[in-house]
C-alpha cells in the first residue's frame, strides 16, 4: 500500500473506526460522570470518584482498543494530576504521579524479555518438546499431559505467548501428520486447550514467568510493606503451576474424544526435533548466565544486599557484552512488548490513586461489610473469585491487577490476609483465564481453527476454575509455611 493510500485509509471512517469513536465517547462520558455528576459517598472526596472514572474509562479504551494502549497510558498520566488525585511532583515519591519506584518494574521487565528472547533464539524450546515426545511414546494421554507440563515449564522462563506458539505449532504438526481434520480431531482440540492453559499457568511459577508477577509483588511491598522474596514466590507457585498443568492436561485428555496417533506421525515430528544435535556454545553460555542470575536472585532472600532488581539490571547488561552476546539488538527489540511495559507503568499510577484516595477501602467496607468475621479460607476464596471474574470481564492482565490488587489490599486491612497471598492471587488469577479465548495467550491457540467457540466455552473453563479453588485452599497454608 502506498503512503497516500495508507493515509487515505486512516482518514476514512469505516465501521471499525466508528466503533472506536463510539468507545472513546463512552469512555469520556463515563469519566465525566464520575468527575462531575456522581454523588460522593460519605468519607470520600471528589478525587476518589475521579480515580474510579479514570479507571473505568481506561478499561473501556484498553478492552476496545479504541486508542493504542500506550496512548491510554499517556491519558492516565495527564488525567491523574489534572483531577488532583496526585500532583505532578512531590517530596514523597509515592505521592507523585511521576515517581522513581514506578520505573523499577518496567526496567525489571527488560530482564524478563532478555531471558525470553535469548531462549527463543536457541533450540532449547525444541529440546524440551523433544523430551515431552519421548515421555509420551504412543500414549495420547501422556502426549497431552507431557505437552502441558513442558509448555508450563518453558513458560516459567520465557513469555507465555512464545511458549504457547512453540508447543501449539509442534502439537498441531503431529495432528496434521496423523491426518486430523479441523473441527473433528479430538487430539487437536485437547492440545489447543491444554497448551493455551499451560502456557498461562506456567507463567505464574517464577517472578520472571510473567511481568504481572513482579508488578503484584511490587504493589504489595509498596502499600503493605510486605516483601515477597524471589525464592518465596518460586517455592509457593512452581508446585501449584505444575499440579494444575497436570490436572489441566488430564482433563483435556478425558474431555475430548481423542483419536489414536499413528506411529509414523510421531516419527515424522520426532525426526525434525532430533536434528539439533549436541548443545551449542550459545546454549551453554545462556544456561550458565541464567543459572548464575537465578541463583543470585534466590540468594537475595537471605542477603538483602543482593537486590534481585539490581541483579536483573546487571545481567541484562551482561547479556550484551561482546563475547557473550546472548542475542542481537534486533532480536532483543523484537521481544520487547512496549505496550505491556507502558501499561504496567500506568497501572501503578492507577493503583496509587485507588489506594491513596480511599475508594478501594470504601468499596470493601461497603460491599463486603462483615468480611472481618469470615473464616480465612472464605476471604481468600472471595479474593480469588473476584480476581477471576474481573479477568473474564477485562481480558488484559495489567488492568485486571489495577482493580483487583487495591481491593484485596483494602480487604486485607480488615481480615488479616497476608500480603504474600494477595501478591500471588494477583499474579495467578490476574494472569490466567481460560473461560474465553479472547486473552492473547488463548487466542494464539484458538485462532488456529481446530476447535469451535461452543466447545471452548463448554470445556476450557475447567483449568481456571481448578486453579481458583486450589489457590484459595493452598496459598494461605503455603505462604504461612514460608513465614508470611
UniProtKB/TrEMBL annotation:
Keywords: Membrane, Transmembrane, Transmembrane helix
BP terms from Gene Ontology: carboxylic acid transmembrane transport
Pfam families assigned to the protein according to its UniProt record, in alphabetical order: Na_sulph_symp
Gene Ontology CC annotations of this record: plasma membrane
Segments passing through the bilayer: 20-40, 69-91, 103-124, 144-175, 187-210, 230-253, 286-303, 309-328, 340-364, 376-397, 409-432, 460-481
Highest rank taxon of the organism: Bacteria
Name the record gives this protein: Sodium-dependent dicarboxylate transporter SdcS
GO molecular function: organic anion transmembrane transporter activity
Family: Belongs to the SLC13A/DASS transporter (TC 2.A.47) family. NADC subfamily.
Record's subcellular location: Membrane
Keyword DNA damage annotated: no
Cited InterPro entries: SLC13A/DASS
Membrane topology per record: Multi-pass membrane protein
Record carries keyword Transferase: no
Amino acid at each position: 500500500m502506498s503512503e497516500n493510500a495508507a493515509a487515505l485509509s486512516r482518514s476514512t471512517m469505516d465501521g471499525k473506526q466508528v466503533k472506536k469513536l463510539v468507545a472513546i465517547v463512552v469512555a469520556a462520558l463515563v469519566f465525566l460522570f464520575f468527575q462531575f455528576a456522581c454523588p460522593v459517598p460519605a468519607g470520600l472526596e471528589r478525587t476518589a470518584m475521579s480515580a474510579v472514572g479514570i479507571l473505568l474509562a481506561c478499561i473501556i479504551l484498553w478492552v476496545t482498543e479504541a486508542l493504542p494502549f500506550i496512548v491510554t497510558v499517556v491519558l492516565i498520566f495527564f488525567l491523574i494530576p489534572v483531577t488532583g488525585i496526585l500532583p505532578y511532583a512531590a517530596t514523597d515519591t509515592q505521592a507523585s504521579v511521576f515517581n522513581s519506584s514506578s520505573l523499577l518494574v518496567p526496567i525489571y521487565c527488560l530482564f524478563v524479555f532478555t531471558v525470553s528472547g535469548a531462549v527463543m533464539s536457541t533450540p532449547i524450546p525444541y529440546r524440551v518438546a523433544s523430551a515431552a515426545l519421548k515421555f509420551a511414546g504412543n500414549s495420547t494421554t501422556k502426549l497431552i499431559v507431557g505437552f502441558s507440563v513442558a509448555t508450563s515449564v518453558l513458560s516459567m522462563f520465557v513469555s507465555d505467548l512464545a511458549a504457547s506458539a512453540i508447543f501449539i505449532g509442534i502439537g498441531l504438526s503431529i495432528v496434521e501428520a496423523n491426518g486430523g481434520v479441523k473441527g473433528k480431531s479430538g487430539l487437536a482440540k485437547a492440545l489447543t486447550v491444554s497448551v493455551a492453559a499451560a502456557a498461562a499457568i506456567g507463567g505464574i511459577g517464577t517472578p520472571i514467568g510473567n511481568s504481572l508477577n513482579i508488578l503484584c509483588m511490587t504493589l504489595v511491598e509498596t502499600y503493605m510493606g510486605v516483601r515477597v522474596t524471589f525464592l518465596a514466590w518460586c517455592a509457593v507457585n512452581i508446585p501449584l503451576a505444575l499440579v494444575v498443568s497436570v490436572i489441566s492436561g488430564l482433563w483435556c485428555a478425558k474431555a475430548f474424544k481423542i483419536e489414536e496417533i499413528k506411529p509414523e506421525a510421531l516419527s515424522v515430528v520426532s525426526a525434525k526435533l532430533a536434528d539439533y544435535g549436541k548443545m551449542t556454545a550459545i546454549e551453554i553460555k545462556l544456561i550458565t548466565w541464567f543459572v548464575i542470575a537465578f541463583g543470585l536472585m534466590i540468594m537475595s532472600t537471605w542477603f538483602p544486599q543482593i537486590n534481585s532488581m539490581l541483579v536483573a539490571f546487571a545481567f541484562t547488561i551482561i547479556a550484551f557484552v561482546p563475547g557473550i552476546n546472548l542475542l542481537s539488538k534486533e532480536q532483543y527489540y523484537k521481544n520487547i512488548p512496549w505496550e505491556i511495559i507502558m501499561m504496567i507503568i500506568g497501572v501503578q499510577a492507577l493503583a496509587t490513586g485507588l489506594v491513596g484516595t480511599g475508594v478501594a477501602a470504601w468499596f470493601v467496607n461497603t460491599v463486603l461489610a462483615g468480611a472481618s468475621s469470615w473464616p480465612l479460607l472464605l476471604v481468600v476464596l472471595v479474593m480469588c473469585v473476584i480476581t477471576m471474574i474481573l479477568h473474564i470481564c477485562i481480558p488484559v492482565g495489567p488492568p485486571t491487577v489495577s482493580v483487583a490488587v487495591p481491593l484485596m489490599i483494602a480487604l486485607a486491612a480488615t481480615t488479616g490476609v497476608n500480603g504474600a497471598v494477595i501478591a500471588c492471587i494477583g499474579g495467578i488469577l490476574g494472569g490466567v483465564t481460560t473461560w474465553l479465548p479472547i486473552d492473547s495467550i488463548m487466542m494464539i491457540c484458538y485462532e488456529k481453527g481446530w476447535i469451535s467457540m461452543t466447545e471452548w466455552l463448554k470445556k476450557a473453563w475447567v483449568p481456571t476454575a481448578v486453579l481458583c479453588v486450589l489457590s484459595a485452599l493452598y496459598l494461605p497454608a503455603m505462604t504461612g509455611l514460608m513465614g508470611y
